[in-house]
């Protein structure tokens, strides 16, 4: 029996290279899914996956990410964005960029794509679909990756958006409600890590002044994340979800990186993908 299949990549800044390893292995093994759900950096990972560009994500994380134009305090002071989203998903990714997205292949691939973002003004969850990625226009990926306070909200069609991770960080229920029967869930934290609220409180206080509804979502993110992970584990026990997660973070966090840690995390993702064929055939 052929199931309707989906894959979710929850992102997680530099830790999200784990998902790149998973997807490169899937490309090598010829494994497709019917729908991809991308959150934050996960949406960027999946853009390359859908375009079938093996190794592209790895280059971004292990080479371009060390440039000051990519992500740095200097970028923050110059552009009010720690990660320069226009550089990453524009200058580098457009057709005349250093490593362009193969847009023709992206469009031709029948795999669907849902990108999660948070409406900065009212705090609602926005699910963009594949049609909103256009030639040299990856605005929805930028919107989904705009970490509150570290980045300004990214405006798409006159609406400002923040990182999808503060709205629907682990959209497993969304995938099942959309009719997908087998869901591969890629995490970038340890599978049993319980997210704490304290790290989100200082940025939420700053955000409160300009975007109070988004600040409230940020304050509640720890609970949303923890609840959605618990739900994913219940579905895993029922055989509907496969959770792939690193066993160590190798010194990486959302905005902190080291080359050895990135390489290790990539390899662990690549190895974890071994479980996918059996899961999809059960």
Automatic annotation (TrEMBL):
The active site is at residues 40, 163. One of its GO terms (molecular function) is hydrolase activity. Residues 7-176 form the PNPLA domain. The keyword Transmembrane does not apply. This is Patatin family protein. Keywords: Hydrolase, Lipid degradation, Lipid metabolism. One of its GO terms (biological process) is lipid catabolic process. The keyword Cytoplasm does not apply.
